[in-house]
Write a structure and sequence with these properties.
The protein has helices at about 5-15, 20-25, 30-45, 60-65, 80-85, 125-135, 155-170, 175-180, 180-185, 190-200, and strands at about 50, 70-75, 90-95, 110-115, 135-145, 205-210, 215-220. The protein has ten helices and seven strands. The chain has a seven-stranded mixed beta sheet, sandwiched between helices. It starts with a helix and ends with a strand.
Amino acid sequence: MPDALYVRDAFARIADRYVLTNHVLSCGMDIWWRKVVTARIRKWKPARLLDVASGTGDLALEIQDQCPRCEVIATDFCAEMLAHAASRGIAKTLVADALNLPFPGGGFDVVTVAFGLRNMADYPAALREMLRVLKPGGRLVILDFSLPGGLLRAPYRLYLHHVLPRMAGWLTRQRDAYEYLGGSIEAFPAGTAMTGLLERCGFVESHATPLTGGVVSIYEGTRPAL
């Protein structure tokens, strides 16, 4: 699992160019992925939502715009990233470590984490902390990279390990901040491995939905009702 100090420093260094770089590297697909997540959440009509590892606030902003009656709180352990989220219009932000969230238990209808769980030092500990702050019956939604299968797998891995770091380095002047990305995606649990992890951490009704041929996946889990 990633080193927390390295991850925080890396994101601090790329914060100013993070949004543009993501759009370029994903050919704009990251915008659509977040819209898919938000469309699901909007149907649930949550009153209170926590976006963990919010970064520059891309998902939180989409949810805040599409769910105007929902209180959206964005947290991240990198203050430099979260400052961008606040400047872009996130109403409530808080610098906080996902492994030790500063909220009482059972306070949120939905917890989201987009492209953030993979960068955390302890996946199970982070998931159990997200479970703790959810209301009984509340939902966790994870959006993160996965590896596609079939004919797409080989060219995608070539792009991931060789093309992407060079492009990101040119855009951010911080190539090393992206060189670990490919390895982190390869090591991150996907599909049934992730749904199994969710269940071991106390979630029920877990399931996975691959998008864009499996380049990313949406994972959902529910805190058991009382």
